[in-house]
């Protein structure tokens, strides 16, 4: 997987909307943003930056454009998480989970659900013959 560029907070907010909507014009993106709504030109500029970074593309519809994501959310999320893992926890998943458990007061039920999900993924890997 090639290196995906990091997004600013504003860019990420617009991408979250595009991931949810799958495709939208600038007005539809603005409609989803919280009040106070940013100016049309501001959102349009952010979307053009996302396009230049390789996150979105567009098709023409009438006189306007419909924008759609070309980087999927899970791919971006995975890379962002790996950046945090390597930057703050020396690549140790155990250290990262331990930090979140201590700082976020994760309940026993939540931890059990996480462990069950990990076991299920491990079972699926084994069923596929992966090491």
From TrEMBL:
Annotated TM spans: none
Originating species: Galbibacter marinus
Protein name in the entry: Putative antibiotic resistance-related regulatory protein
InterPro entries documented for this protein: BlaI_family (IPR005650), WH-like_DNA-bd_sf (IPR036388), WH_DNA-bd_sf (IPR036390)
Keyword Endoplasmic reticulum: no
Pfam families, per the entry: Penicillinase_R
Coiled coil: 101-128
GO MF term set: DNA binding
Keywords, sorted A to Z: Coiled coil, DNA-binding, Transcription, Transcription regulation
Family of the protein in this entry: Belongs to the BlaI transcriptional regulatory family.
């Amino acid at each position: 997987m090639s290196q995906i560029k990091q997004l600013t907070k504003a860019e990420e907010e617009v991408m979250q909307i595009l991931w949810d909507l799958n495709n939208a014009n600038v007005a539809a993106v603005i409609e989803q943003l919280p009040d106070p709504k940013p100016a049309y030109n501001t959102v349009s500029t952010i979307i053009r930056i996302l396009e230049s970074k390789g996150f979105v593309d567009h098709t023409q519809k009438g006189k306007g454009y419909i924008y759609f994501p070309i980087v999927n959310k899970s791919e971006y999320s995975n890379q962002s998480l790996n950046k945090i893992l390597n930057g703050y926890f020396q690549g140790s998943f155990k250290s990262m989970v331990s930090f979140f458990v201590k700082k976020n007061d994760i309940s026993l039920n939540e931890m059990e659900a996480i462990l069950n999900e990990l076991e299920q993924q491990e079972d699926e890997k084994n069923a596929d013959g992966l090491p």
